[in-house]
Protein 1
Amino acid sequence: MKKIIAVLACVLLAAMASAEDDPQQVIPARLKAMFETPDKPLDIAPVVVQADWAIASWRQDGRGGRALLKKTHHGWSIYLCSGDGLKDAGTLEKIGISANDAAGLAAKLKDAEAGLDPSALALFSSFEGTVMMMNEASNGAGGGHEVHAQ
């Protein structure tokens, strides 16, 4: 009986650790903690990951866009928010992402968004310009998101 309990405890701990490391769960949770309010739910999908970079497409209160995130020693942080520019590997390279990772992100995003409703894609595309979010002082803390809402 003790062996069974020990095995179950190990399985449970492994499952919890993998959930904490899974960008598909961690990134939406982080963004929701930063930006979601009871009256303005935040929908985050899809999330694509390549190495230490990710792109999360989001919708909230009739608006939308894409967030580029970078994994640091603090976890996933928003690097910048933009629209269709994040679909382009060349743009991602100009931001400083390696050619391989930029191509991987762009391809994964294209595949992930291929089957989505055109209205969702229109919202992701509606974000105008680029808002830098990550710097040494903020570590990606929510500054700048409200600019798009105006």
Protein 2
Amino acid sequence: MRSPLRNALACVLLVTLSATFVWADEASHRAAADDLLAAMKVKENQIATAKQMLDAMVAQSPVLQAQKDILEEFLKECLAWDAVKDDFAKMYMEEFTESELEELAAFYRTPVGKKLADKTPVLAGKGAKIASARVQKKMPELQQKIRERLSAGRM
């Protein structure tokens, strides 16, 4: 028969080893996420993408045009890689298994994957322009609906 002390020590050892394996698994999962972010060129592309979207917004607003330099500096500060890289890695780790992250990184290292990574800021900018134009076109309709609600006393 095993003694209670021996059973307790075995449980402690089992918990300690389990935690070590979980930590190792978490570390390798994080390494896979970091590798994918590097392959996707997220660090290089995030400021360029934000600038493309800012340009689309500024093109629609003279008020923003006069403040563009302040907005650009603000975005650079908010989106500095050191400030967001942990959040980005966590986001990908929550959505993809380690194996999936490795497969995605392999794709982004292919010629078409590299092209996609390089074109991402351009595509995001074009997408922002499309969205902005559609919203601008429908803005009178939105304003009318808001006026109707306000005049009916519903807020």
